[in-house]
Amino acid sequence: MRDALSRHNEIMRAAIERHDGVLFETAGDSFVIAFDAAPPALAAALWAQRELHREAWAAPVGSLRVRMALHTGHAEMRVDGYFAQHTLSRQARILSTGHGGQVLLSRATRDLVADALPEAVELRAMGRIWLKDLIEPEEVFQVVAPTPPWSLPTDFAPLNSDRPPPGNLPAAAVPFIGREETVDDIAAAVIDGVSRITTLLGPGGIRNTRL
Question: Does the bond joining 149 to the residue before it have cis omega, within 30 degrees of 0?
Answer without folding.
Answer: yes
